[in-house]
Amino acid sequence: MLNANFLDDGQVRILDWEYAGMGDCFFDLANFSVNHNFGDEPDRLLLQAYFGEATPPAWLGSN
Q1: Per the confidence metrics, is the pTM higher than 0.90?
Q2: Domains of the chain by residue range
């Protein structure tokens, strides 16, 4: 996802259909991180925002 894919009309919306058929959220998250040159702390915040916490068990869907 790129900044151009974000729409803000009072509510942020993300539109990106390039890889929609793949359906892998980790691809989108990693691609977003790489495109914006994130480091460890921004990556942690991205994962926390997406999953609600930033611990490996949360990423895997297990406790």
Answers
A1: no
A2: 23-63
